[in-house]
Amino acid sequence: MSIQYNAESRIFHLTAGGTSYVMQIIRDGYLSHLYWGKRLRRYAGSNELQYLDRGFSPNPDPDDRTFSLDTLPQEYPAYGATDFRNPAYQVQLQDGTTVSDLRVRSHRIVAGKPALPGLPAAYAEDGSEAETLLIELADEVSGLAATLSYTVYEQRNVITRSVLLRNEGTQPQQVLRAFSANVDFRDDGFDLVHLPGAWARERHMERQPLHTGIQSIESRRGASSHQHNPFFALARKDATERSGEVYAFSLVYSGSFTASVEVDQFSTARASIGLNDFDFSWRLEPGEAFQCPEALLVYSADGLGGMSRTFHSLFRERMCRGEFRDRERPILINNWEGTYFDFNAESIEQFAEAGRELGMELFVLDDGWFGKRNDDKTSLGDWFVNESKLPGGLGKLAGSIVDKGMRFGLWVEPEMISRDSELYRKHPDWCLHVPGRSRSEGRSQLVLDFTRDEVCSEIVRSVSDILRSAPITYVKWDMNRHMTEIGSPALPPERQRETAHRYMLGLYKIMEELTSAFPHVLFESCSGGGGRFDPGMLYYMPQTWTSDNTDAVSRLKIQYGTSLVYPVSTMGAHVSAVPNHQVHRTTTLEMRGHVAMSGNFGYELDVTALSEEEQTAIRSQIEFYSAHRALIQFGDLYRLLSPFEGSETAWMFVSKDKCEALVFYFRTGAEANSRISRILLQGLDEQADYACEQGIVYGGDELMSSGLAIPALWKEDYESMVWKFTQRP
Ligand code: DGJ
C-alpha cells in the first residue's frame, strides 16, 4: 500500500518510489504538511508542529495564542484567516468578501489514477501501479468545497497533485486564484533552479539562492512560453548533477502559469505552482466545479540528474500517449530553412528525393503550401492547398513522395488566423479581441477564439479534411504568437477573465479529437520553436520542435537546459546549413550532426545543393544514428559537463540494461595550450568491463571514477567527439 492513514494520529503517509510525503489533519480539520523527502519506514512525528505565542501572528482560536495559521505548514493555504503568506487559492463571494476557510471533512483512497476532465495529466495504465488519495474539504460559511488529489506511483519518485473546487452554496462565487499545489518547506536552505529564455534562446538554466520575500516565475502570454517554463526545482545548496536533494515542480499546462517561492520571517519556504491568477477569474454558479491543472512533484536524492531521469521516464511512459510513444522516431528532412516559402511541386519532389537518397525517412513540407501563402502575412485559416504552387494538390505530391519510399509530413498552424484570409473575411469576429479596441498582430496574425465551440469544430473539420486528403503520417503543429486583447465577445462580462483558460480547454479538446481520429499520425508541437515545450503538449503530441535556433553551439545550452525536464525522445533537433541562419556562425558538419543526434534527429537545409563530401558525411551520420537510435531515444541520459559553466559540454546515453553507452563531448572556441580534460562517466555497471571502439577495454568503475581522457589535439573552433562503449560478456 502506497498510501496509509492512521486514524488515531490522523496522519497520511504517502510513499512513491524512494519518497515519503506526510500530512496530518489537526484540530478541527486543518490540513497541515509534515514532511516531503527521502522515503521513511514510518512517521511518528509527535513533536513535529511547534506551537508558540508569536507577536503579530494572530490566532483563529481566541483561547489559544500559540496556534496561528501564519506559522503552520499547510497543504492548501487560504488568505484572510491568520496566514499572511502567499495563499494557494482565493474566492470572492456574492457579498464581495474574500475570506475562506477550507477544513477537511473526509477522505478516500482509490486504486490507480482518475483522469482530469478536459485537461492533460499523467496517467496510470492499471490500478496496481498507482494509488490516489482524495481529500474533501469544505468551507461551511460559503459552501465552497475542494477535493485535493494526490497520486503516488509505486515505482517512481513522483507525486501528482490537483485540485477541484466546487460551489455547493446557493450564491455564485468568483474564483480569483486556484493553484494546483503548495508545499510549505521547513527551511529555506535551497537554490531555485529554473529555465528562463527567449525566442531562439529557450530554457537556459539558472540557479540562484533563495532570498527573503517572494521570488516567482510566470507567463502572462497565453502560452507556457519561450520566456519561462512551467517548472522549477528547489535544490539543496550541496546538490549537484550527481548527488544531493532536489524537490521539483512541473505544471501540466500549456497556457499562462505562475510558480513562486516565498521565504517568510521564520526562514521557511512556501512553494506553489498553478494557473496564473493575473487577469484570471472563474465564475462558479451554484453546483458548478472548476478543475485546476495537474502539478507533478518529483523528489530526487541523486541531484539534478536523478530528477531529470525521473521526469524523463514519467513523460516518456506516462505522459506521452499513442502508438508512437514507444516507437523509434523517424529521421526527417524539413524544407523550411532549405526553401522557406520559395518552392513548387517540382522543387519539393527534388528536395524529398535528395533526402531519400541520403537515407532520410520522412519528408516534412513546412509553411507555405496553402491559401495564397508566399510570405508570413497571409492565409492562416485557409486550410486548402495552393494549387498554383502544388498543382494536383497534396494528394499528388504526397503520393509521389510516398511511392518513392519516404513518409510525408505537413506543417499546419491551426490556432491562428491572418487578417488577409478568406476565413477572416467570412468571420471577422472569430479571433480573440475586445470590441472597440484595435487587434494587435504578432507575425501579422491573430489568435482564433477557441472559447467558441463553432470555431473549434471548424478547425477540427478543416484539419481533418487535409489529413484525409493525402497519405500524411506526420504533422508539425505550429503556433507563432502570444495572446493580446484577451477577450471573447461570446462570453458574458463576468466571464471575460476566463478567456485565456477557456482557450486552452478548447485547444486541448481539438487536439484530443484530432489525435484520436488520426492515431497513425505522429504529431510534433511547435511554437516558434520551443515556445510551448511543456508536459501538457506532450500529452497530445509526443515530440516538440525544441527551438528555431538551429546553430549547434546555441543548441548545446538549449538542449542541455531542456533536458533538465524533458526526455530526448521529445526534443526535435536538426542539422542546418552554415553560416547558420539565426546566428551566422559556421560550425563543422560533424558537430552539427552530433548535437542534432543528441535529440530527435533530422535535417533542415537544402539537400539538393550538397557537395559530394557533405553527402558522404550525412550518409554516415544517418547510418550511425540509425544504429544507436533506440539507445539515444529510450536510454537514460546523464549530463556530464555543462555548457553554462565553460566551453566544454558532455552528456551520455546508457541503455536500461547498462550494456551500451554513447558519450558525446563538445568544445567551443579553440584555445592555445588548452587544459587537459577528463570526463567522469555515469550510469555504468561498476563491475562490468566495457569495450570502446578505439579498442581499449575499461572497467565501468574506472570510467566512472578515473574517467575518460579527452584528446588534447584541436583542429578547429568547434569540435565534437563520440565514444561508444559496449559491455563485454
Ligand atoms: C516557426 C517554426 O518554429 C519554424 O520551424 C517554421 O515552421 C516556421 N514557423 C514556419 O512559419
Largest sheet: 10 strands, antiparallel
Unreliable spans are: none
Question: Can you count the beta strands?
Answer: 38
Beta-strand portion reads: 25-35%
Helix content: 10-25%
Please report the distance between the alpha carbons of the first and last residues: 39 Å
Radius of gyration, taken over Cα atoms and rounded to an integer in Å: 27 Å
Q: What structural class do helix, strand and pairing data support? A: alpha+beta
Mean pLDDT: 97
Overall, the morphology is globular
Question: What small molecules are bound in this structure?
Answer: (2R,3S,4R,5S)-2-(hydroxymethyl)piperidine-3,4,5-triol
What's the tally of helices? 12
What report would you give on this structure?
This protein has 729 residues and is of the alpha+beta class. The chain is 19% helix and 30% strand. The strands form seven sheets. Strands 6, 7, 8, 9, 11, 12, 14, 15, 19 and 20 form a ten-stranded antiparallel beta sheet that branches. 53% of the residues are buried. Bound molecules: (2R,3S,4R,5S)-2-(hydroxymethyl)piperidine-3,4,5-triol. (2R,3S,4R,5S)-2-(hydroxymethyl)piperidine-3,4,5-triol binds at residues 336, 366-367, 376, 411, 478, 480, 526, 528-529, 545, 548.
Comma- or semicolon-separated keywords:
12 helices; 19% helix; ten-stranded antiparallel beta sheet; single chain; alpha+beta; binds (2R,3S,4R,5S)-2-(hydroxymethyl)piperidine-3,4,5-triol; 729 residues; eight-stranded parallel β-barrel
In short:
The chain is α+β, with helices and mostly antiparallel strands. Helices cover 19% and strands 30% of the residues.
